């Protein structure tokens, strides 16, 4: 008999996580902006894409190896920056870091991670990129840049698609706030999910670990609307490492960022968490590839749920892709074991799809 907690797909992980997590936490991870039509649009666009099977080619030896910023990676996909991962299960940030170290893939470390950037990059054995939000007047933002430099980060990812935090009704209905606050409604929610609640209680309330420094008090709702192209220019001047701009969905913006000296762009709709009416990110990827040319590095995230999805994004113009919330679901479902199970599923799906379409290397997908 197949165990009820076995993970054979991303949807399995989500189903188990939905049962185990408090409603408030599940809806924070799973929720999207507005009515959810943006997420549905992302999914529909990926589902509409097809891959042509090819036959009678020797595909017995296949490699999932890739390269990103001159570094070898064992997979052509990494881990997107996600805030407050330790809500899915205690220690989730470090589980992701160990996964990144094992496969030499980049782990996006969120500004609002619940483990410090210093601890994560050590556990990831250097396979970590720091994701940055510009907020308020920018003074705290540039303090974080200096911390990232001192901690040994070589790649900075500036997320630009959150001038204001999008309205996510599922979060709002549960009263989800950061820093974490527990009222009567949340207490009932947690009481109905005792396994998660007792485990979380034993490890203490999740905190915004990167803001536990003098002169900086985090406010998740603080406006990020003051960031401009001048802000990007200032960051480019101060950061000598790789600079990625994440959240670009418009070809004109892509061309402007490239001209500003950005090393790569990450096409993303923030997992449909910001603008319900945004176009499907995979369609924006095709347009932006045309705008920036064939050689410019393009990364992609948003809506990926399988190895086949990753191959679709690579054939649409991405050089490297990132998975997000499905990894949190895997950890919520079965901790580090669940994460490893789902990573194996994604790897198998990717490899089997390569065989079906007659290719043996990631580079073949771009021909």
Automatic annotation (TrEMBL):
Keywords: Flavoprotein, FMN, Oxidoreductase
Residue numbers binding FMN: 81-83, 110, 131, 159, 246, 268, 324-325
PANTHER family: 2-HYDROXYACID OXIDASE 1, S -2-HYDROXY-ACID OXIDASE-RELATED
Active site: 270 (proton acceptor)
InterPro entries xref list: Aldolase_TIM, Alpha-hydoxy_acid_DH_FMN, FMN-dep_DH, FMN_HAD
Required cofactor names: FMN
Enzyme nomenclature, EC number: 1.1.99.31
Protein name per Swiss-Prot or TrEMBL: (S)-mandelate dehydrogenase
Provenance organism: Ruegeria denitrificans
Taxon lineage: Bacteria, Pseudomonadati, Pseudomonadota, Alphaproteobacteria, Rhodobacterales
A GO MF label: FMN binding
Stored CDD domains: alpha_hydroxyacid_oxid_FMN
Span of domain FMN hydroxy acid dehydrogenase: 2-367
Binding site residues for glyoxylate: 28, 133, 168, 270, 273
